[in-house]
Amino acid sequence: MIVDIFVPCFIDQIYPNTARNMIRILEKVGCSVNYNPAQTCCGQPAFNAGFRKEAREVAEKFILDFLSDRPIICPSASCTGMIKNYYSQMFHNTSLHNEYKQVQKNIIEFSDFLVNVLKVTDLGAELRGTATYHDSCSALRECNIKDSPRALLKKVKGLEMREMEDTETCCGFGGTFAVKYEAIAVAMTDQKVARAEDVGAKIVVSTDISCLMHMESYCKTQNKNIRFMHLADVLVQGW
User: Fold this and answer.
1) Cβ contact 202:231 at 8 Å
2) pLDDT by residue (tens digit) across 191-215?
3) Which CATH number do you get for residue 161?
4) Which strands, in side-by-side order, build the sheet including 2-5?
5) Domain count, the chain
6) Per-residue pLDDT averaged across 50-78, rounded?
7) What is the pTM of this model?
8) Domain coverage including residue 129
9) What is the dihedral of CA 154, 156, 158, 162, to 10 degrees?
10) Per the domain annotation, does 171 fall within a domain?
11) How far is C-alpha 93 from the chain's CA centre?
Protein backbone atom coordinates (compact mmCIF):
# COMPACT_ATOMS: atom_id res chain seq x y z
CA MET A 1 0.00 0.00 0.00
CA ILE A 2 1.24 3.48 -0.85
CA VAL A 3 0.50 6.05 1.86
CA ASP A 4 1.09 9.75 2.34
CA ILE A 5 2.26 11.04 5.69
CA PHE A 6 1.48 14.37 7.32
CA VAL A 7 4.05 15.49 9.90
CA PRO A 8 2.49 18.04 12.28
CA CYS A 9 4.27 21.23 13.34
CA PHE A 10 5.27 20.09 16.85
CA ILE A 11 6.78 16.88 15.54
CA ASP A 12 8.47 18.51 12.55
CA GLN A 13 10.12 21.25 14.60
CA ILE A 14 10.76 19.64 18.00
CA TYR A 15 10.42 15.85 17.76
CA PRO A 16 11.50 14.86 14.23
CA ASN A 17 12.59 11.39 15.39
CA THR A 18 8.94 10.59 16.10
CA ALA A 19 8.17 11.15 12.41
CA ARG A 20 11.14 9.00 11.42
CA ASN A 21 9.97 6.23 13.73
CA MET A 22 6.48 6.36 12.24
CA ILE A 23 8.02 5.91 8.79
CA ARG A 24 10.12 2.98 10.03
CA ILE A 25 6.98 1.30 11.36
CA LEU A 26 4.94 1.91 8.23
CA GLU A 27 7.70 0.48 6.07
CA LYS A 28 8.06 -2.52 8.37
CA VAL A 29 4.39 -3.42 7.89
CA GLY A 30 4.76 -3.18 4.10
CA CYS A 31 3.73 0.37 3.25
CA SER A 32 5.49 2.55 0.70
CA VAL A 33 5.68 5.98 2.27
CA ASN A 34 5.29 9.20 0.31
CA TYR A 35 6.28 12.52 1.91
CA ASN A 36 5.41 15.82 0.26
CA PRO A 37 8.13 18.30 1.40
CA ALA A 38 5.87 21.24 0.53
CA GLN A 39 3.48 20.42 3.40
CA THR A 40 3.23 22.82 6.32
CA CYS A 41 0.36 22.98 8.83
CA CYS A 42 -3.27 21.86 9.02
CA GLY A 43 -4.36 25.31 10.25
CA GLN A 44 -5.39 24.30 13.75
CA PRO A 45 -3.40 26.89 15.76
CA ALA A 46 -4.88 29.81 13.82
CA PHE A 47 -8.37 28.26 13.82
CA ASN A 48 -8.41 27.73 17.59
CA ALA A 49 -7.11 31.25 18.19
CA GLY A 50 -10.00 32.71 16.20
CA PHE A 51 -8.06 33.70 13.07
CA ARG A 52 -10.43 31.97 10.68
CA LYS A 53 -9.27 33.74 7.49
CA GLU A 54 -5.65 32.82 8.14
CA ALA A 55 -6.66 29.29 9.15
CA ARG A 56 -8.54 28.85 5.91
CA GLU A 57 -5.51 29.94 3.88
CA VAL A 58 -3.31 27.37 5.61
CA ALA A 59 -5.96 24.65 5.39
CA GLU A 60 -6.47 25.34 1.69
CA LYS A 61 -2.77 24.71 1.12
CA PHE A 62 -3.04 21.48 3.09
CA ILE A 63 -5.89 20.26 0.90
CA LEU A 64 -3.99 21.07 -2.30
CA ASP A 65 -0.85 19.37 -0.95
CA PHE A 66 -2.73 16.12 -0.33
CA LEU A 67 -4.93 15.64 -3.37
CA SER A 68 -4.77 11.89 -3.99
CA ASP A 69 -6.67 8.70 -3.25
CA ARG A 70 -4.00 7.51 -0.81
CA PRO A 71 -4.45 7.28 2.97
CA ILE A 72 -2.88 10.21 4.82
CA ILE A 73 -1.25 8.89 8.00
CA CYS A 74 -0.88 11.39 10.83
CA PRO A 75 0.91 10.79 14.18
CA SER A 76 -1.38 13.27 15.91
CA ALA A 77 -5.02 12.79 16.84
CA SER A 78 -5.25 16.55 17.36
CA CYS A 79 -4.41 17.40 13.75
CA THR A 80 -6.47 14.47 12.48
CA GLY A 81 -9.46 15.72 14.45
CA MET A 82 -9.04 19.23 13.09
CA ILE A 83 -9.18 18.02 9.51
CA LYS A 84 -12.01 15.55 10.05
CA ASN A 85 -14.25 17.78 12.11
CA TYR A 86 -13.55 21.43 11.32
CA TYR A 87 -12.65 21.67 7.65
CA SER A 88 -16.39 21.48 6.97
CA GLN A 89 -16.82 24.88 8.64
CA MET A 90 -14.37 26.46 6.22
CA PHE A 91 -14.94 24.64 2.93
CA HIS A 92 -18.51 23.33 2.81
CA ASN A 93 -20.21 24.43 -0.43
CA THR A 94 -17.08 26.22 -1.63
CA SER A 95 -14.91 25.65 -4.72
CA LEU A 96 -12.93 23.13 -2.64
CA HIS A 97 -15.98 21.21 -1.44
CA ASN A 98 -15.12 17.92 -3.18
CA GLU A 99 -11.42 18.24 -2.44
CA TYR A 100 -11.86 18.78 1.30
CA LYS A 101 -14.27 15.84 1.44
CA GLN A 102 -11.61 13.65 -0.18
CA VAL A 103 -8.98 14.75 2.34
CA GLN A 104 -11.38 14.15 5.24
CA LYS A 105 -11.97 10.63 3.97
CA ASN A 106 -8.26 9.90 3.59
CA ILE A 107 -6.82 11.34 6.81
CA ILE A 108 -6.33 8.79 9.58
CA GLU A 109 -4.45 8.74 12.86
CA PHE A 110 -1.40 6.46 13.02
CA SER A 111 -2.61 3.87 15.57
CA ASP A 112 -6.07 3.78 14.02
CA PHE A 113 -4.51 2.96 10.66
CA LEU A 114 -2.30 0.18 12.02
CA VAL A 115 -4.97 -1.57 14.05
CA ASN A 116 -8.19 -0.97 12.15
CA VAL A 117 -6.98 -0.78 8.54
CA LEU A 118 -3.89 -2.98 8.42
CA LYS A 119 -5.04 -5.22 11.32
CA VAL A 120 -1.56 -5.08 12.87
CA THR A 121 -0.98 -5.02 16.63
CA ASP A 122 2.37 -6.77 17.21
CA LEU A 123 5.38 -4.89 15.82
CA GLY A 124 8.02 -6.87 17.70
CA ALA A 125 8.81 -4.02 20.08
CA GLU A 126 10.45 -4.54 23.46
CA LEU A 127 10.66 -2.00 26.28
CA ARG A 128 11.19 -2.79 29.95
CA GLY A 129 9.24 -0.68 32.38
CA THR A 130 5.91 0.30 33.88
CA ALA A 131 3.78 2.61 31.77
CA THR A 132 0.39 4.24 31.60
CA TYR A 133 -1.51 5.60 28.63
CA HIS A 134 -2.86 9.15 28.42
CA ASP A 135 -6.04 9.58 26.36
CA SER A 136 -5.76 12.94 24.65
CA CYS A 137 -8.97 14.96 24.32
CA SER A 138 -8.69 15.00 20.53
CA ALA A 139 -8.17 11.25 20.28
CA LEU A 140 -11.18 10.46 22.45
CA ARG A 141 -13.64 13.14 21.52
CA GLU A 142 -12.77 14.00 17.94
CA CYS A 143 -11.42 10.72 16.53
CA ASN A 144 -13.06 8.08 18.77
CA ILE A 145 -9.64 6.53 19.45
CA LYS A 146 -9.28 4.61 22.68
CA ASP A 147 -8.64 0.91 22.06
CA SER A 148 -6.15 0.95 19.16
CA PRO A 149 -3.17 2.47 21.05
CA ARG A 150 -3.76 0.07 23.94
CA ALA A 151 -3.90 -2.91 21.57
CA LEU A 152 -0.47 -1.94 20.22
CA LEU A 153 1.04 -1.29 23.65
CA LYS A 154 -0.26 -4.59 24.99
CA LYS A 155 2.02 -6.41 22.53
CA VAL A 156 5.22 -4.59 23.59
CA LYS A 157 7.37 -7.15 25.38
CA GLY A 158 8.49 -6.22 28.87
CA LEU A 159 6.13 -3.25 29.13
CA GLU A 160 3.68 -3.41 32.02
CA MET A 161 0.68 -1.23 31.24
CA ARG A 162 -1.35 0.16 34.13
CA GLU A 163 -4.51 2.22 33.72
CA MET A 164 -4.47 5.41 35.73
CA GLU A 165 -7.54 7.00 37.27
CA ASP A 166 -9.11 9.85 35.30
CA THR A 167 -7.25 8.81 32.14
CA GLU A 168 -9.86 10.61 30.03
CA THR A 169 -9.33 13.91 31.84
CA CYS A 170 -7.47 16.68 29.99
CA CYS A 171 -3.77 17.17 30.75
CA GLY A 172 -4.18 20.95 30.65
CA PHE A 173 -2.40 21.74 27.38
CA GLY A 174 -5.18 22.66 24.97
CA GLY A 175 -2.90 24.65 22.66
CA THR A 176 -3.16 28.35 23.48
CA PHE A 177 -5.19 27.45 26.59
CA ALA A 178 -1.95 26.63 28.42
CA VAL A 179 -0.63 30.10 27.53
CA LYS A 180 -3.76 32.11 28.29
CA TYR A 181 -4.68 30.22 31.47
CA GLU A 182 -1.33 29.06 32.79
CA ALA A 183 -2.38 28.53 36.40
CA ILE A 184 -5.33 26.33 35.44
CA ALA A 185 -3.23 24.41 32.90
CA VAL A 186 -0.51 23.73 35.48
CA ALA A 187 -3.07 22.55 38.05
CA MET A 188 -4.58 20.16 35.51
CA THR A 189 -1.14 18.83 34.62
CA ASP A 190 -0.28 18.37 38.28
CA GLN A 191 -3.42 16.25 38.71
CA LYS A 192 -2.69 14.18 35.59
CA VAL A 193 0.91 13.49 36.61
CA ALA A 194 -0.25 12.56 40.12
CA ARG A 195 -2.63 9.97 38.65
CA ALA A 196 0.28 8.46 36.69
CA GLU A 197 2.41 8.38 39.83
CA ASP A 198 -0.41 6.71 41.78
CA VAL A 199 -0.10 3.59 39.59
CA GLY A 200 3.70 3.61 39.71
CA ALA A 201 4.15 4.55 36.05
CA LYS A 202 7.63 5.58 34.96
CA ILE A 203 6.55 6.06 31.35
CA VAL A 204 3.55 7.99 30.00
CA VAL A 205 2.52 7.22 26.42
CA SER A 206 0.09 9.07 24.15
CA THR A 207 -0.88 9.64 20.52
CA ASP A 208 -0.35 13.39 20.91
CA ILE A 209 3.12 14.87 21.30
CA SER A 210 1.68 18.22 22.40
CA CYS A 211 0.15 16.66 25.53
CA LEU A 212 3.40 14.84 26.25
CA MET A 213 5.46 18.00 25.77
CA HIS A 214 3.24 19.88 28.20
CA MET A 215 3.42 17.21 30.90
CA GLU A 216 7.14 16.66 30.40
CA SER A 217 7.86 20.39 30.83
CA TYR A 218 5.93 20.40 34.08
CA CYS A 219 7.79 17.33 35.39
CA LYS A 220 11.16 18.91 34.60
CA THR A 221 10.30 21.92 36.75
CA GLN A 222 9.25 19.57 39.56
CA ASN A 223 12.26 17.23 39.17
CA LYS A 224 9.97 14.26 38.59
CA ASN A 225 11.56 11.21 36.99
CA ILE A 226 8.91 10.26 34.43
CA ARG A 227 9.58 9.49 30.77
CA PHE A 228 7.12 10.74 28.15
CA MET A 229 6.96 8.86 24.84
CA HIS A 230 4.87 9.10 21.71
CA LEU A 231 3.35 5.78 20.69
CA ALA A 232 5.54 5.60 17.57
CA ASP A 233 8.68 5.97 19.70
CA VAL A 234 7.58 3.08 21.90
CA LEU A 235 6.79 0.77 19.00
CA VAL A 236 10.34 0.87 17.58
CA GLN A 237 12.03 -0.01 20.85
CA GLY A 238 14.10 -3.19 20.79
CA TRP A 239 14.38 -3.43 16.99
Assistant:
1) no
2) 999 999 999 999 999 999 999 989 9
3) 3.40.50.11810
4) 32-34, 2-5, 72-74, 107-109
5) 2
6) 96
7) 0.94
8) 123-234
9) -30
10) yes
11) 29
Q: What does each C-alpha distance from 67 to 23, 87, 97, 183, 220 come to in angstroms?
A: 20, 15, 13, 42, 41
CA 108 – CA 113 distance, rounded (Å): 6
- The Cα–Cα gap between 61 and 97 comes to 14
The reply to whether 173 and 191 lie within a common domain is yes
**143/85 Cα distance (integer angstroms):** 9
182 and 96 housed in the same domain: no
Same domain, 6 and 112: yes
Q: SS3 string of 99-146?
A: HHHHHHHHEEEHHHHHHHHCCCCCCCCEEEEEEEECCCHHHHHHHCCC
Q: Please report which confidence band the pLDDT of residue 179 belongs to, taking 50, 70 and 90 as the band edges.
A: confident
* Per-residue pLDDT reduced to its tens digit, 110-155: 999 999 999 999 999 999 999 999 999 899 999 999 999 999 999 9
